[in-house]
Specification:
2 domains, UTP-monosaccharide-1-phosphate uridylyltransferase activity, EC 2.7.7.64, UDP-sugar pyrophosphorylase, UDPGP_fam, nucleotidyltransferase, 8-stranded mixed β-sheet, binds uridine 5'-triphosphate, 13 helices, 5-stranded parallel β-sheet
Length: about 525
Amino acid sequence: MLVQVPSGEVLTFGDDNFIMFEEVGVKEARKAAFVLVAGGLGERLGYKGIKVALPSETTTGTCFLQNYIACILALQEASCKLLEDKYPVEIPFVIMTSDDTHTPTLKLLESNSFFGMKPGQVKLLKQEKVACLDDNDARIALDPNDKYMIQTKPHGHGDVHSLLYNSGLLNIWHDAGLRWVLFFQDTNGLLFKAIPASLGVSATKGYHVNSLAVPRKAKEAIGGITKLTHADGRTMVINVEYNQLDPLLRTTGHSDGDSNCETGYSPFPGNINQLILELGPYIEELNRTHGAIAEFVNPKYKDSSKTSFKSSTRLECMMQDYPKTLPPTARVGFTVMDAWLAYAPVKNNPEDAAKVPKGNPYHSATSGEMAIYRANSLILRKAGVQIADPITTVFNGQEVEVWPRITWKPKWALIFSDVKKKVNKGCSVSQRSTLVINGENIYFGGLSLDGALLINAVSEAEVQVTGSVENKGWAFKPIDFKDNSLPEENRIRGFVIEKLEQLEKNYSEPGQFSLH
Ligand code: UTP
């Protein structure tokens, strides 16, 4: 077999090409449906609740699900506005749950009025669990709490394809003129910063399958996107899981295995498991396969004798294995973006995150939150705002960069050209500052911020912000993650925010206002 680096689109944030793809993507969004896979147990994180209920950042406390819904609604509005559409669309949103996550996910939605989405716009599809196996001879495992029951565990996110096929939703979407299905995961607070440009790439390049990717460090725990050519000439562009990439490369003539090239990164883009599929070809393929995805077992052994498991295993399947059955004519590509813009999942508990080799991402609640502040700071910097350099701090044994705590609602800016329209070059923000932008029409013309500023405005209020704001601001107070008297949401980050002093402005009536 031949293992090569496939071809795809590599984007640079903020250049003309990127801006062009973003604008195409926003136009296309009205023809998209979003699918969140949120049935996972989150064993590595070990959080007692569902992951989508965790705050993506603690400055505003916005949870992942709320953020995702706000992004989809903002895309829906922006897409319809761009096309001056008199009949606004409702972008469908599907959440795949499992027995472990279904009820709490539904409760979270219901108790928050679906975070502003119409209840009929959201559909929950529950995946079933499968029987567990105790040993190499595949003896069925018994439930540790009831020896008359078979132990079961989730079957992997690959179930999403058969669930969608059987739900009948795909044909309904197709008949309604939709063209794209976007799959994404439960805890990536940056994802929607990458969605418009990647959807633009799918539409422009005519990709049937577009995998979002980031530059990958050799041995980093994310799969690599590869082009495999079999001896009989069959080829496929497919994710190879990180634990299989090194042995695969070594047995196919790459004697260095999974190693960095001259760029300092692996030549294989890192798959972040956010997929954009073109609906027509997707339906055709599922009509053939009914959504069945190749299964595998991945037992975690107690020791190198590989005779007994740490805990029971089961058959699993992965959604990114979908291209494996595609015909050679299928257009399978990828879109690479910088990790700071596109990928900061919350997967690891503090103890495991602290053990991640230096230079590789922690993928913890701490790093996931800091990544949001860093991305927003870097985007504003690129738009000409003077943003102070970060400081380095250690929380929960992880060394992270702390940038100013800047957050905005997606309706303020979905894409880079929105940001550029709303800030001018005379603004500056100090490192210890917090800036919360909660409103659509808030314009910054020369703000100098050293402290905390929160602006809440209805869409019909246009607010011009100038002058300087200085106060004690909000500070991070380190906490011990083992301190059980504190909420788990904070403990897994290693800090709480101390709100010392802030300027908070609310504009609840339509009109023109200035804050100076
Ligand atoms: P992860 O790789 O983060 O796995 O899943 P996980 O199962 O949630 O966490 P661990 O491995 O137990 O620590 C990636 C995405 O796939 C979803 C997760 O909810 C997450 O969004 N997923 C995973 C499912 O929807 N179903 C599954 O059976 C497994």
